[in-house]
Amino acid sequence: MNSFRLALKSLWHRRVATLLTVLAISLSVALFIGVGKTREATRDAFSGAISRVDLIVGPRTGSLSLLLYSVFHVGAPSHNVSMRAVDYAKSLESVEWVVPFSLGDGYQGFPVVGTTPDFFTKYKVRSGESLRFSSGESFDAPDEVVLGSEVVASGRLKLGDLIVLSHGHSEHGDGFERHEDHPFRVVGIIGFTGTPIDRSVYVSLEGMGAIHQEPSAADSSSTKTHKHEDLDDHDHDHDHGHDHDHDHEAHSSFVSKDGKILVTQVSGFFVGAKNRMASLELQRQLNTWTGEALSAILPGVAMSELWKNLAIFESAMAIISACVVLTGVIGLFVSLLILSGQRRREMVVLRAVGAGPKTIFTLLAGEAVFIVLFAIVLGMGFMHLGLFMLNPWIEKKFAIHLELSTFNFYDLIFAGILLLVGAIVGILASVRAYRSAMHDGLATKF
Asked: What is the pTM of this model?
């Protein structure tokens, strides 16, 4: 009988122990490959969150802080930049476009971004993909709002619905003041991007100013009294959203003059250069401008810096998953050793009918290879099932899309190495079994 057929029959004879060993190794394989794919998806999600934006400009701060709150809406700026800085950037010869943005509000745990309609045409994701509307269009009035796909899904919203924003926001709900007197009508829904845009709410700067405008000198004293009461409320509840200093600054970012809302400050602005080669010079001009303390960063460089800071977590995840796989391989080795000790009579019978060392080695090594092969196939099945089940939750929670792809080159290398290790483990176990069989006879005592 062929040695590999004999190995399969032997495994089927001990199917319970074999199944448990296969399950242990398959879970290790699923974890190892799943962690790798999650790491790749996370890297793609981070790097694809912004594209074709040459500079991000904000108040003088660290590059990571500016990147996190402007692109990923994590944290908040310590203070704002004036519209004078925005106008200065627009006046530079090498600048093609400037898109300001203002942060500070929220809607049911989602960040609200005040910006201009140019954002939807100038801001790109991944490798230059434009934002597309799955329905509706960009806002055109101060009371209109555009929603990301995740915001729509969470609230089952549709075009024409009215929503109420909150002053400040937290991850788990609204901020500490709902602007009930300024509802916004949904006019556009952005298609899925797999970036923080899916979890964002977009209004015009004028629309944000309508709920945060600073009353002019001609306004009534009652309005001033109302503003003072609002600020007192913010002092009591600032722990539920952004801090009070930032909220007060948001109020002074908009003023009302002659019935019109004027934007005086924004959280920052995105810049597109006419020639990408001029980005470094443009960065120097903005960073050294004497009119205001600004920080201009290159998104790609800041993203690389972010990944360097996260490298220790990537390494930790890889080490943990590798240890799990190693534990599974050790379990396979121990299982084969135990089985080889229990199969002395089988080895003696095989030798008695003429089986040589090659046959015994092939038998045990073949069993180990089959176990590892079955474990790899089952582990890939577990991984895809896990990604299929967890992908909606991961997209909703972290805006990371996990691709249900097949083996890539590195996965094939890993599978090959694991099969080789399984064969080596089987050979080591077969050496021990063969040596034990040499000292045993047909009348082995148990």
From this structure: 0.71
